[in-house]
């Protein structure tokens, strides 16, 4: 099958965009004989260039292939031109390494990094010739599993996925594979067994009880709920691939990546990752230095990114940078800091790492007024922002990218007036420096209420309010100094719906896919009107999800799983937000009892 399939695929390559997306064989990719092994396909529901930079995929791909009883291969969703040709030639979705049809695998594993990729999951299953509904899958069909942040509200895609991996997968995925590899068990028996493995959420074991209003009344479950996340307690001992794949194609993050720690406990109230990956856990300096040197030795990359949710917080960072600068001097390997905090320390770090021509530095104040920064628990003052700008200018940068959010809970028109004032103050600071002064590119992303955050209870602002606020800002900033960018608000609305909705949305995703929706994360492919049509066809009012306030009495779809942070703590933290009370960073300061320590060592 694979040889014939490869021939068919290769015949298409001269006619499609970026054929290297479909050939595999990259440096450090792994080819194994599948005989007698568990066949696992790791699927990224978007194109190669995006999926290839996904740290989770790279870690698990190499981890699974380190097991001699597992045959793990990758599959990235074909772009629209290739998919069209494949459907015309009746070619199923295939793995890169050996060009094996996904339908022939034992396990098909998706990562769900973003809600707007859900139509791609359905499209991918259909292109693979695998029944899209879990209810239609029996013996002989692959087990379809999913992991990643999207699983913290698994319900919108629970019609299509047999099992959700809740939390960090390094240990759990091997437990799942051991059961999936049992030839003596049927498809259903495997799911029965897996539903009792900590960290596995099997939606077929849970029934949702609805109120006449369409809200959730309760859950009827054959297994204990909620399913608590799994974490890797000691990340210093955690598996980390030191011979990662080196892509042929230019990918989103075209560099080596070193995960320096897991978790962030700054407690920004809009940030889901800050709640999901608690507690914060660090690797030792010895481990970090060794892993970085090995990765560069085994790949030849000219840059390594020190990645985490908040790298400047890492207590080993300064000695690590000292070690790596020394080790990489001869090879001229650059060390990068993907995320920077708005403080002079971070700018100092970025400056020490980047003696070359200063292009652009990125900072994320998120809110323009102090009132709003307090509400979101950003814990930075205007003085800190202006001092950071001075550090940026002292270090020689003249271009700055600033990230702000629009439509944050509690936001008023006055907050946008204050944001415009902040830009004026930043530009004024730059007037004292030689050269052409500072140019600011500002990206405004619309606020999306996320499960497992204090803002899961709040509603979004409607489009007309967001458009008015953009006008307030645009009328007050100097376009020669400040460039404003923002995403279409409809995308933020849909993202909120699939963040907050329940099982009833499965029918909407399928209907939208039937109507042609896919690659919704790409603005030129996102069809808002078609999605609204799909809601109408399913008799669901799409506005009820993101334009209504909820309370601590509301039963949320995602209460079938837990990240350890309690609903009670989130409700209390929302009250703190309205009082502009800040929460400490519990890694450096005192614990605020979010609930995680009841299940994990903090
Ligand atoms: S329980 Fe305390 S220390 Fe642990 S993550 Fe929550 S706030 Fe931080």
Q: Which characteristics define this entry?
A:
binds iron/sulfur cluster; six-stranded mixed sheet; globular; 602 residues; alpha/beta; Rossmann fold; single chain; four-stranded parallel sheet
What does this structure look like?
By secondary structure, the protein is of the alpha/beta class. It has a domain at 2-228: Rossmann fold. Helix content is 33%, strand content 14%. The protein is built from 20 helices and 19 strands. It has a 6-stranded mixed beta sheet. Strand 16, helix 14 and strand 17 (439-446) form a beta-alpha-beta unit. The model has no long low-confidence stretch (mean pLDDT 94).
Quick synopsis:
The protein is an alpha/beta fold and 602 residues long. It contains 20 helices and 19 strands.
Quote the average pLDDT.
94
Strand segment count: 19
Structural class: alpha/beta
Q: What is the class of one domain in the CATH system?
A: Alpha Beta
Please tell me how large the radius of gyration is: 24 Å
Low-confidence stretches: none
Biggest sheet strand line-up: 2-1-3-4-5-6
Largest sheet: 6 strands, mixed
What is the overall shape? globular
Q: Could you please say which CATH topology of one domain applies here?
A: Rossmann fold
β-strand percent reads 5-15%
Could you say what the CATH architecture of one domain is? 3-Layer(aba) Sandwich
Annotated CATH homologous superfamily of one domain: Cobalamin-binding domain
**Ligands bound, unique:** iron/sulfur cluster
Count of separate DSSP helical elements: 20
**Helical content, roughly?**
25-40%
